[in-house]
């Protein structure tokens, strides 16, 4: 948009570049004048822009670079020690990702607290108190959060089962006994599935504990 482009050039000169004195910016500010392109061409020469008036994208990029250099020159002390926002966010994310990294694992109070929690939650003792703390964190997240407790206390509604569709595999000679045997077999299968789910959860919990950068399975030990 031509009007937006001209307003942009005027804003850069007024606010950042300030090559002209205020009283000398009249022609450049008169964005509706038919002579504005000539005023802009003269301005480019005055600021030593190496591009032609037709090369707008290159001209805009160059003028922005000039504005940034001038802004920095006016406020060098302010900007020289600043950190990009992206770097700050990365540092914060790294700190939040491992909240245990700055703990003093040799502190007696820390060891006593971890041991008390482990005993309360019936967690296996380990020589590395940090490993025990991670196990406690996993247990709390998986079992003791409000969502986990609410999910565990929810009553399960049974689904109707058509017994005639399930083959028992043997015949007791009594229809009532056959039906009871089918029910017992289905309940047993349900218990096996629940057991398998708990085994899978235990495997995931153990993997989360041992998935530590200091762990080297090839050496058969944990350490730095």
UniProtKB/TrEMBL annotation:
One Pfam family per UniProt: RLL
InterPro entries to which the protein is assigned, alphabetical: RTRAF (IPR019265)
Coiled coil (residue ranges): none
Family as reported in the entry's similarity comment: Belongs to the RTRAF family.
Annotated protein name in UniProt: RNA transcription, translation and transport factor protein
Species whose genome carries this gene: Urocolius indicus
Lineage: Eukaryota, Metazoa, Chordata, Craniata, Vertebrata
């Amino acid at each position: 948009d031509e009007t937006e482009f001209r307003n942009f050039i005027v804003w850069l000169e007024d606010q950042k570049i300030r090559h002209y004195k205020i009283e000398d910016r009249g022609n450049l500010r008169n964005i509706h004048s038919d002579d504005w392109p000539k005023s802009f061409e003269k301005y480019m020469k005055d600021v030593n822009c190496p591009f032609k008036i037709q090369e707008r994208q290159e001209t805009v990029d160059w003028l922005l670079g000039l504005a940034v250099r001038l802004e920095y020159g006016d406020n060098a002390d302010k900007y020289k020690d600043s950190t990009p926002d992206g770097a700050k966010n990365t540092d914060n994310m790294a700190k939040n990702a491992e909240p245990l990294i700055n703990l003093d694992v040799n502190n007696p109070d820390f060891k006593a607290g971890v041991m008390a929690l482990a005993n309360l939650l019936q967690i296996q003792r380990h020589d590395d108190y940090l490993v025990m703390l991670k196990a406690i964190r996993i247990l709390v997240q998986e079992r003791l959060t409000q969502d986990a407790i609410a999910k565990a206390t929810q009553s399960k509604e049974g689904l109707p089962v058509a017994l005639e569709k399930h083959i028992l595999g043997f015949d007791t000679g009594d229809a009532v006994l056959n039906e009871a045997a089918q029910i017992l077999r289905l309940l047993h299968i349900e218990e096996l599935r629940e057991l398998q789910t708990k085994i899978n959860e235990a495997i995931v919990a153990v993997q989360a504990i041992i998935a530590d950068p200091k762990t080297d399975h090839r050496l058969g030990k944990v350490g730095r």
